[in-house]
């Protein structure tokens, strides 16, 4: 490949626990598309599957934790030895493409006063099963519809100037598991007066294969509950990304539907009311469903609607638990 000479030096930091095949493809993409002078730092966070050994085939800059301390700690360790002007945090189950790094460099070259950016998953997820396709397309759509002045940071594909990262104190290492440590960093950046940009043409491929249990565990316990606690702590409730008005209205509608179905089926005109709620839900989310239909067809979209509504239900449940935990923590 012909590599362009960039103004800013770049350090790619990849935390990995047990990365498996996805980690291998991540490393292959970095080797193929990163310029030769790119610093690649891998932090093996207590892996037991040989990820650290695999990493040695791609870079000499490897940090090893004897036991898992979480991605927040791993990213901070990588940042401490990084020499690049820009820190590019990349998840181990993500692959870059030929435009990822040039687009990052182009953004900072034309916007020298900007300090951080986040990208997006692409619209071609790596795993072929339904849940992986649905979940990653949903994430892609959410970021593509987001505001350019982002309300958060994103650890899967996020870039920040090294001096700002050091000044703000890095990731919060109290998060011992993958959670909302990236969102928390974003909130601190914004509260300190910095701005984060969502650059929609900086896209990476998510290789993760989602199953029912892994999806519910991640969405409820690693996102919804801790994110709610963050929202209550910082008060950063904005009409953007997962917190947009469409999602909020949809949660209210679905819980209204659930309550009416469980307790008020004998109410006059109840079925008409339920039908109206369904129609409103379809109208409110029509852009997303149109997107899915264009990408995957009718059958996939119908199946996705069920999961999308289920997502609103368990997301609302996670929000409620988060509120309770926050209040309980403050009382005690």
What does this structure look like?
The chain is globular, with a radius of gyration of 21 Å. It has 332 residues and is an alpha/beta fold. The model has no long low-confidence stretch (mean pLDDT 93). The N and C termini lie far apart (59 Å). Strands 1, 2, 3, 4, 5, 6, 7, 8 and 9 form a nine-stranded mixed β-sheet that branches. It has helices at 20-33, 51-55, 71-81, 100-110, 130-144, 162-168, 181-191, 212-234, 245-263, 270-284, 286-296, 298-331, and strands at 10-16, 39-45, 62-65, 86-90, 94-95, 116-121, 149-150, 157-161, 196-206. α8 (212-234) packs across α12, α9 runs antiparallel to α10 (270-284) and α9 packs across α12 (298-331). The chain has two domains: 10-210, Spore Coat Polysaccharide Biosynthesis Protein SpsA, Chain A (Alpha-Beta Complex); 241-331, no CATH class. It is built from twelve helices and nine strands.
In short:
The chain has twelve helices and nine strands. The protein has 332 residues and is an alpha/beta fold. β2, α2 and β3 form a beta-alpha-beta unit.
